[in-house]
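Mods, move this if it's the wrong board.
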Amino acid sequence: MQSSNTNNAVTASWLERYFCIQQRGSSVRSELIAGLTTFLAMVYSVIVVPSMLGKAGFDPGAVFIATCLIAAFGSLLMGLWANLPMAIGCAISLTAFTAFSLVLGQHMSIPVTLGAIFLMGVVFTLVSVTGIRQWVLTNLPRGIAHGTGIGIGLFLLLIAANNVSLIVGNSGGGLPVKLGDVNSLPVIATIVGLAATIGLEKRRVPGGILLVIIALSVFGLLFDPAVKYSGLFALPDLTSEHSLFGKLDIMGALNPVVLPIVLALVMTAIFDATGTIRAVAGQANLLDKDDNIINGGKALTSDSVSSMFAGLVGGAPAAVYIESAAGTAAGGKTGLSATLVGALFLLLIFLAPLSYLVPAYATAPALMYVGLLMLANVTKLDFDDKVDAMSGLTCAVFIVLSSNIVTGIMLGFATLVIGRICSGEWRKIKPGVLLIAIGLVVFYMGGWAI
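Not the wrong board. Structure tokens:
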């Protein structure tokens, strides 16, 4: 017994030194609790991501494995290298971009799409390590930064509502969408699930999102003939015909027609992921005296390298999960919590058959809840600066109306610059903002945008 206690003490001491736990005012216990909390808050992604990419023709089982591998790789990199309590996984917004804009919208093949994701990761990494990403972040107007979050939230809400036929296409005249059958089981289950998720998150129940997914899945298994049990455990098969491991087509992605899409992915990632890292670091008080993120360079590089890995294993682009804030709220301040998240996602790979047990109405509430969380950005808009606030709202609205994140960002920048000029506030236009605005407009006017 004494030997066991000694070993535990030595292990704890080593962990404290490696992750600077005491130096940051935390403890091993707090970090482990924070890691488990983050995992429970974001584990829904291994169900939502395969569901979304499955609609674009990806094999859901293969995507399940890829999603676990990406979350494990990215979180371990962030934890062991950057020593920050931020978990990485397949970004829901970029997953939507991949499925609905690239494969279904542009009719790109899956191998070429994966090649584009890999190239996006390469360019994204270069942008991060050279400081360009930080420069863009510095020159991103507050209104557009918050407007992007609002727009992505609306986009996710629309996708989730459409997946369960709560909102459907309107084949007749009038508006392009209409209300679906509110008496159908998927719609009722989705609405109840969303309300339950909100209630559990209000009570700060760890893994509340996951609990709702499990409950609705069990409900479907018992009462929905379309939901069938396919097993519990399975060894991951990376060599089967359905596996997407190593199936990327880099040469196809280097086609001049596809390269603008790679740029669009990079731009989307820049404006979507960078703000999340800053927000989580701020909540955990991991900012230095100059208000910069501790180990910020490593943090920015970790998610971009993870996107390269995503292209290799057959998943969606990666990014830091905003759900990491649940872990930092539970006391996480070091990379030990992110390391635990990565280890748990590795274990989850052997539960792949569960991905077939979860119907769309079980994951839709999670997607809608994340979308609603992102709408909170509207409270951060400064309406005393009407041009900035309205450009942010323009960005948000056109992200969902065009179903394209970069389109909304481009219109937001154009509105901001022209609005400043017409209001006589042209002196407020930073050179960097003007340069980004011109670049985006040229990108669209030249016909390179997707």
